[in-house]
Amino acid sequence: MTAPRHHLVVGAGTAGLSAVEAIRRTCPGDAVTIVSAEPDPPYSPTVLPHLLAGRIDASRIALRPESFFARDRCQLRLGAEVTGLDAERRQARLADGATLAWDTLLLASGSEALRPELANPHGVEMLGFTRLADLRALRARLGDRTRVAILGAGLIGMELAEALVHVGPGLRVTVVEQERQVLPRSFDAELAGGIAALFESRGVTLRLGRRATALERAGGAVALTLSDGSVELVDLVVACVGVRPRAGFLAGSGLAMGRGVLVDRRMATNLPGVYAAGDVAEGPSADGTPGVHPVLPTAAGQGRVAGSNMAGRDAEHEGWLPANVFNFFGRVAMTVGATESMKRARPAGASTLPHPPGQGKFLRILRPVTLEAERNRNTTTMPGCIYLASSSVAEIMKDISGSPVFLRGVGTQILTASISCRQEKSVEAWMRPFFTNFAN
Ligand SMILES: Cc1cc2nc3c(=O)[nH]c(=O)nc-3n(C[C@H](O)[C@H](O)[C@H](O)COP(=O)(O)OP(=O)(O)OC[C@H]3O[C@@H](n4cnc5c(N)ncnc54)[C@H](O)[C@@H]3O)c2cc1C
After folding, report:
1. Which ligand 1 atom lies nearest to the CA of residue 327?
2. Taking the CB of residue 86, how many other CB atoms lie within 10 A of it?
3. What's the CA-to-centroid distance between 20 and ligand 1, angstroms?
């Protein structure tokens, strides 16, 4: 029997708390300290659009009940920001000068918003939409007739736009996107066009195929200049141009870094006893290619694996597959796999699921999925992207029940022999965690 150990978890989000659960299952006598830079009880950023739209109440967003933390040998420290690590001494430094020692350490600090590069000579405020503090700032500035410009039509920007439509009919919402379509990393142009039309029918103005280049004060308003020379007069600007791993505080720690903290399938970093999971981690995808995959089910899965290994087990993450679910105006859109536009949108040199030119077809499967999937079972194509729009999650689950994601065969490197049998999963199995998390 091993002596009880102390596990330090940096980040009280989905990855961190999934790890704590796994540690408890295996070693209930071990001590755990969870630190969060924020003052709020642990929550998931996925609630932000729902809070803004009034679909849920702030009293219902806690990721775990208080009883989860009120245990012997468990300490939750809120408002405690880790500013550095001393890997040799196995100590984390906090912003207030205190130190915390660890036997094992999990880095689960999530991601932070990217800021667009544009001229801003007057220092016009640009809000974000990734943390509760952002939501509070946004709410404090919203009036009945506020004109809001959202920079970026990715999932976060579009979720924000949808939520603002629900906030009030007097708001004027404009979304600016440099690609020619909305949701360029998730859906192909044709399908994204359908989503865009729905947003426009609800009063959202889309300015696609142009970048925001400058912000200036114009009386009481803000003049937002776009790359085509046009100017939008707005009251508020919210930047939703992407996220990156929140890893600045790890500089000089000796951790191997890529875009995020590099981890293997066990979620182990290059430093002994140090693990990373969730948005901050750069771990293997389903085909082994490393990458950052900032979505909730990946954070939960990686956190579970990291926690098991911190507690002395030997668990491996199956790897992530690009996948997401987008709820908008009572509909659900779903994507699995890499789309052509996702590949284009990735910066050169960034890790990606490899798809050599001319190989790999990306099928859009509209209902009935099962029939389409069956038809392709014996071909060389991989349904790399799946899209459904439907009125209910239950309907989608019925449709995709039993439909295979072809992770074997030929056509792309993801289909090579390096994919072991455990990677053969149905679409339903890949997507279940997304629907479990977001069914509404
Ligand atoms: C608006 C919005 C909508 C989203 N919608 C979806 C969706 O529909 N589907 C989906 O799959 N994903 C969605 N995501 C992404 C999803 O929220 C993240 O992938 C997931 O929350 C990542 O979990 P995590 O545990 O890695 O990080 P987080 O949940 O972000 O937790 C990070 C934790 O680390 C703490 N922290 C950070 N730095 C430090 C430090 N230096 N010291 C101490 N603590 C620190 C933070 O305070 C926080 O407690 C959405 C994200 C946003 C912002």
Report:
1. 8
2. 14
3. 16
Average pLDDT in the 410-434 region? 44
**Considering only CA atoms, which residue is closest to atom 5 of ligand 1?**
46
**How far, in Å, CA of 105 to CA of 93, rounded?**
13
pLDDT, tens only, 350-401: 222 233 333 332 333 332 222 233 334 333 233 344 455 544 556 556 555 5
- CA dist 231 and 247 (Å) reads 36
**CA nearest to 36, candidates 77, 68, 66:** 77
Tell which wins on pLDDT, 352 or 79.
Answer: 79
Residue 33 Cβ inside 6 Å of ligand 1? The answer reads: no
> How far is residue 339 from each of residues 12, 123, 191, 319, 438, measured CA to CA in Å?
32, 37, 11, 18, 22
Handedness of CA 212, 323, 339, 357 (dihedral sign): positive
In whole angstroms, give the CA distance from residue 119 to residue 371: 51
Ligand 1 neighbourhood includes 302 CB (under 6 angstroms):
no
Which residues partner with 111 through β-bridges? 245
CA atoms within 13 A of residue 383's CA, in its CB half-sphere: 26
CA 167 → CA 29, 142, 434, distances in Å? 47, 10, 25
Buried b (16+ CB within 10 A) or exposed e, 422-440: ebebebbebbebbbeebee
CB-CB contact of 344 with 404 (8 Å): no
Separation CA 182–CA 206 (nearest Å) = 9
Per the listing, tokens 């009030």 go with 168
